[in-house]
Amino acid sequence: MATELSITILDRLSSVLPKLILKRIYTRVRLDQQVLIDTRSSNPIIFYLSTHVPVLNAWFTVTNMTNLKWKIHDFSAEIWLGQPLATATCHDRPPDISRKTRDDVFTKCELNEFQVNRAKEWKDRQNKGQGDNVTIHVNARLESTVGLIEFKTTLENRPVLVQ
């Protein structure tokens, strides 16, 4: 009976101990410094207004500088053109974001008539030199051996293409 109890305790400790150690090593501050989310360098945000169904496509990069492997659970981006316009959600995610790598994440949002009109107005103001700043609020939930972690990032003054 004592051996069965000790085996059960050792088994539980061996399954929980690595996660506790990793949580001590990878603190929230350290993860925020080593998992970076930004827009793609060329044409990160494109509004396609002349298609049958107007859409917003946005590309982001997730840079993993940790020794952990991450999996994307949820990834969304709120696009603000002066005020909130659209929320793009992840459709094309990498299977895993490996150690010390950078991977692309694709987000998309179908636009309604109101959003199309606002994007056209923004483009007209931009052509006149009066355009508002573009702000993107990114909310990403990534999972690794330390658990499910939520990363929130605000990106400002990113290039936008309206076609």
Topology:
Layout: H1 2-25, H2 28-34, E1 35-39, E2 45-48, E3 55-64, E4 71-81, E5 83-92, E6 101-110, H3 113-127, E7 134-144, E8 147-156, E9 160-162
Parallel strand pairs: 2-9
Antiparallel strand pairs: 1-3, 2-3, 3-6, 4-5, 4-7, 5-6, 7-8
Protein architecture, described:
The protein is an alpha+beta fold and 163 residues long. It has a single domain (2-162), classed as Sandwich (Immunoglobulin-like), CATH 2.60.40. The protein has 3 helices and 9 strands, in the order H-H-E-E-E-E-E-E-H-E-E-E. Strands 1, 2, 3, 4, 5, 6, 7, 8 and 9 form a 9-stranded mixed β-sheet that branches. Strand 2 (45-48) and strand 3 (55-64) form a beta hairpin. The termini are far apart. The model has no long low-confidence stretch (mean pLDDT 86).
Supply the helix-strand structural class.
alpha+beta
CATH C-level category:
Mainly Beta
Beta-strand residue fraction = over 45%
Number of helical elements: 3
Q: Return the CATH architecture.
A: Sandwich
Specify the biggest β-sheet: 9 strands, mixed
How many independent structural domains? 1
Described by the principal axes of the CA atoms, the overall outline is elongated
* CA gyration radius, whole angstroms: 21 Å
Uncertain runs are none
Topology as H/E string? HHEEEEEEHEEE
**Overall residue-averaged pLDDT value:** 86
Helix percentage range: 25-40%
What separation lies between the terminal Cα atoms?
A: 73 Å
